[in-house]
Amino acid sequence: MGSRISARIGAISESATLAVDAKAKALKAAGRPVIGFGAGEPDFPTPDYIVEAAVEAARDPKNHRYSPAGGLPELKQAIAVKTKRDSGYEIEAAQVLVTNGGKHAVYNAFATLLDPGDEVLLPAPYWTTYPETIRLAGGVPVEVLADESQNYSVTVEQLEAARTSRTKALLICSPSNPTGAVDSPETLEAIGRWALEHDLWVITDEIYEHLTYGDARSTSIPVVVPELADKTVVLNGVAKTYAMTGWRVGWMIAPVDVIKAATNLQSHQTSNVCNVAQRAALAAVSGDLSAVEEMKKAFDRRRRTMVRMLNDMPGVECPEPTGAFYAYPSVKGVLGREIAGRTPTTSSELADLILDEVEVAVVPGEAFGAPGYLRLSYALGDDDLAEGLSRIAKLLG
To answer: Known PANTHER family for this protein (predicted)?
Structure first.
């Protein structure tokens, strides 16, 4: 008798970020004063006008029925308009597939493009879900590490060194989860030209497009290299921009033949995304960006506080993140020191120690393909943020 679980599914590790968040919430529920820096989730409610659109939609019987598997036609059209408005990328509604959240878009993209053994260049540190979805599609993730010395931004030279005859695609996430780094237009143009030269697909995750600070701006790769549009998949969703993580609406934008194939896949997987959530997403993408502007002010304030407090800790080095809502400090200078009677030698052991000793939840770099770091989200209240960082500072002495 073989294993009860298939080898394909048995090989997947659980989402480290969700696991840390679940552990923190369980301790909190048990009455512990845990502060969680784990989840990538805005601490704001979804804006009222979006909630109202959902309430109205729930009352309308047409939303109680099946709708097209690839998304409500009016939402697909609105996403096309929003994409032109926000990134300058001109597309048509037939190039859009509405998915059950951003993760579903990531899965559909790889499942549609990859054959067994195809390699995907994956700049690290990377979001914990990418390598698992690549493997599920039969692909092979090839990690390309960009550390704090290069501000977590991968170079063409590094990508070229990792390219082989099996390389099919490159994944880009800017602004980045987990590092908060934002690639410059010049960097993305150089990478895009290189991908074009070698006939590679580019999958670009733009879920944090509106969360940039200071002079940093998000750039969409098919805008700076228009010739690449025929081999580009753009992933996005409403989760981060509109504080809608729980509504589960994302989308992928790709050439029409890819979208047709991915829609066919989704027709067997899930059918349509929940109509009420799609109507809420329609209100979100059709509206203005004032909600995210308000959130950004708070995130920017917390970002500066967090970076300052982290860099004040002995052995901690934190480049300034210019996008998303994460700081990604190196803690290599802390490892190997005795702390509270223990000597952590990995960032994973350090994260466990911080949770055990001062009840603060952080995600270790092992989850993102870069041991020696911690990821801390600053999408939590100012008081909790300051208190949590103060506890870590006291522990590290």
So the answer is: ASPARTATE AMINOTRANSFERASE (PTHR46383)
User: Where do the structural domains in the chain lie, given as residue ranges?
Assistant: 7-45+291-396, 65-286
Distances (CA, A) of 109 to 47, 197, 252, 361: 29, 22, 7, 32
Strand partners, 97: 252
Contact between residue 151 and residue 181 where contact means Cβ atoms under 8 Å apart: yes
Query: How far, CA to CA in Å, does 103 sit from each of 20, 43, 221?
Result: 18, 20, 20
In the chain, which residues have pLDDT < 70?
A: 1
Give residues with Cβ within 8 angstroms of 291, minimum separation 6.
47, 241, 242, 243
CA distance 281 to 277: 6
Q: Which two tokens stand for residue 330?
A: 């190196």
26 CB-contact burial (10 Å; exposed 0-12 / middle 13-18 / buried 19+): exposed
Which residue has tokens 């949590």? 388
By C-alpha distance, which of 359, 336, 333, 358 is closest to 349? 336
Question: E-assigned strands of the chain?
Answer: 35-36, 96-99, 119-124, 140-145, 167-173, 201-205, 232-237, 250-253, 326-327, 360-361, 363-364, 374-377
**Euclidean distance between CA atoms 233 and 207, whole angstroms:** 13
pLDDT digits (tens, 9 = 90+) for 324-347: 999 999 999 999 999 999 999 999
CATH T-level topology, domain 65-286: Aspartate Aminotransferase; domain 2 (3.40.640)
C-beta of residue 77 within 8 angstroms of C-beta of residue 286: no
Q: pLDDT digits over 80-97, tens only? A: 999 999 999 999 999 999
Q: What are phi and psi of 169, to 5 degrees?
A: -150, 165
Confidence (pLDDT) at 271: 97
**What is the H or E stretch that residue 55 is in?**
helix 48-59
Euclidean distance between the first and final Cα of the chain, in Å? 54
> Any idea which fold 7-45+291-396 has?
Aspartate Aminotransferase, domain 1 (3.90.1150)
DSSP state of 227: G
In angstroms, the CA 150 to CA 159 distance is 14
Contact 372, 347 (CB under 8 A): yes
> In terms of C-beta density within 10 A (0-12 exposed, 13-18 middle, 19 or more buried), how is residue 241 classed?
buried
Encoded tokens for 211? 């969360």
Mean pLDDT of the chain: 96
